[in-house]
Amino acid sequence: VQLQASGGGLVQAGDSLRLSCAVSRHAFYAVGWFRQAPGKEREFVAVIHWRNGIRYYADSVKGRFTISRDAAEHTVYLQMSSLRPEDTAVYYCAVRADYCSGNGCSARNEYNYWGQGTQVTVSS
């Protein structure tokens, strides 16, 4: 499985940005977004179940970020709004092959394949 993340950039606080993750055609259960800020561990942001579209979000992004998928294009999007300086990080998309639900989808060690990451910088 190959994943290609794109769409990062430098924006100001309050701005919006949309990240894309193109996924090569393969069987998988869900696609997630994670982020890693300098000096911090990689943390879960959002996940979408590929077949039924069920979504889960980290509390820190609920109401501001929206994950979606385009099945025909095999692409997952992360629409980020009301961005804050603390959202600054490298954002990664990842695929997991196994079922998950709720908080179980946030475990990064259960994702099987990762993209290369795209930098998001939010200035105050």
Protein model, in words:
With 124 residues, this protein is mostly beta strands. Helices cover 0% and strands 48% of the residues. It is built from no helices and eleven strands. It has strands at residues 3-6, 9-12, 17-23, 30-36, 43-49, 55-57, 65-70, 75-80, 89-96, 113-114, 118-123. Strands 2, 4, 5, 6, 9, 10 and 11 form a seven-stranded mixed beta sheet that branches. The chain is globular. 31% of the residues are buried. The model has no long low-confidence stretch (mean pLDDT 94).
List keywords for this structure.
124 residues; mainly beta; seven-stranded mixed sheet; four-stranded antiparallel sheet; 0% helix
- In percent, how much strand structure appears in the residues? over 45%
Using only C-alpha atoms, the radius of gyration works out to: 13 Å
| Uncertain stretches | none
Extended strand count: 11
Structural class: mainly beta
Q: Major β-sheet, in short? A: 7 strands, mixed
Mean pLDDT: 94
The end-to-end distance, rounded to whole angstroms, is: 37 Å
Q: What's the order of the H and E elements? A: EEEEEEEEEEE
Shape annotation: globular
Helical residues, percent: under 10%
If helices are DSSP runs of H or I spanning 4 or more residues, what is the number of helices? 0
Task: Summarize the model shown.
By secondary structure, this protein is an all-beta fold.
Layout of helices and strands, plus pairs?
Blueprint: E1 3-6, E2 9-12, E3 17-23, E4 30-36, E5 43-49, E6 55-57, E7 65-70, E8 75-80, E9 89-96, E10 113-114, E11 118-123
Parallel strand pairs: 2-11
Antiparallel strand pairs: 1-3, 3-8, 4-5, 4-9, 5-6, 7-8, 9-10, 9-11
